[in-house]
Amino acid sequence: MAICELLKPRAGLKVLITGGAAGIGAAIASAFAEAGSRVFVCDVDAEAVAETNARGNGIRASVADVARVGDADRIVAESVDALGGLDVLVNNAGIAGPTGRIEDVDPRQWDGTVATNLNSQFYFLRSAVPHLKRSDSASIVALSSVAGRLGYAFRTPYASTKWAIVGLTKSLAIELGSDDIRVNAILPGIVAGPRIDRVIEARAQVSGTSVEAMKDTYLSKVSLRRMVTVDDVAALALFLCSPAAANITGQAISVDGNVEYL
């Protein structure tokens, strides 16, 4: 097979993406659909789910709170029924969590960040892995963050979950290797969009500086001096599920323009 063909995911892959109706998740869903995959997404945003289903591009969507184990079990069952099986799980759903000094973080905010960012990945893995074991092209992609390899002051709940996802990924790659299931993590950097705008605004407020100054501070830490896009992240997800990545597993791969520090 030609190298260029190896770079494309196999046509007809059955893909489940959490948090897939907006942002990075939606970009990944669209990329897989354009590559000929069958895609099912879930999202907590009912309006975004309705818009996804109305688009008519073959992506099926359902409302779910990924932090609830019952919702995770239901979505995996719905996706397997709708797609006729499961080849790929993209654990993408996550929230930014609170911004502030550790002594000022509300325990409920900590618990909510852990529940959405980390527990949800476990819930979906627990339910999806038995189905992935029946696939001949099984792959798991976990969305971590550059904050999963660097310390991140004032964002400790978020960073803690993203470091944990890397540990989960590396451990599962060993556990599931004999089942021919590949497990990798993507660590996006500063992704352009409304979410990072909110994060920068919150960080500026905590630090007592202007939003523009804080944005410049963020970009000064990136070797390429620019943000990445949701399509950059989606392209890496496609590659990791392609034949070209057949021997890539247990890796935490950054797509971040080389963030030097946070």
Shape: globular
**Helix share, percent:** 40-55%
How many E strands?
Answer: 7
CATH H-level homologous superfamily name of the largest domain: NAD(P)-binding Rossmann-like Domain
The computed structural class is alpha/beta
Task: State the strand order across the main sheet.
Answer: 3-2-1-4-5-6-7
- In CATH, the topology of the largest domain is named Rossmann fold
Main sheet: strands, sense, barrel: 7 strands, parallel
Order of helices and strands: HEHEHEHEHEHEHHHE
Strand content: 5-15%
InterPro entries: NAD(P)-bd_dom_sf, Sc_DH/Rdtase_CS, SDR_fam
Keywords: Oxidoreductase
Protein name: SDR family oxidoreductase
GO molecular function, one term: oxidoreductase activity, acting on the CH-OH group of donors, NAD or NADP as acceptor
Strands, helices and their partners?
Layout: H1 3-6, E1 14-18, H2 23-34, E2 38-43, H3 46-55, E3 59-63, H4 69-83, E4 88-91, H5 107-132, E5 139-143, H6 156-176, E6 182-188, H7 194-207, H8 211-220, H9 230-240, E7 252-255
Parallel strand pairs: 1-2, 1-4, 2-3, 4-5, 5-6, 6-7
Helix pairs in contact: 2-9, 4-5, 5-6, 7-8
Protein name: SDR family oxidoreductase
GO molecular function: oxidoreductase activity, acting on the CH-OH group of donors, NAD or NADP as acceptor; quinone binding
Organism: Lichenibacterium minor
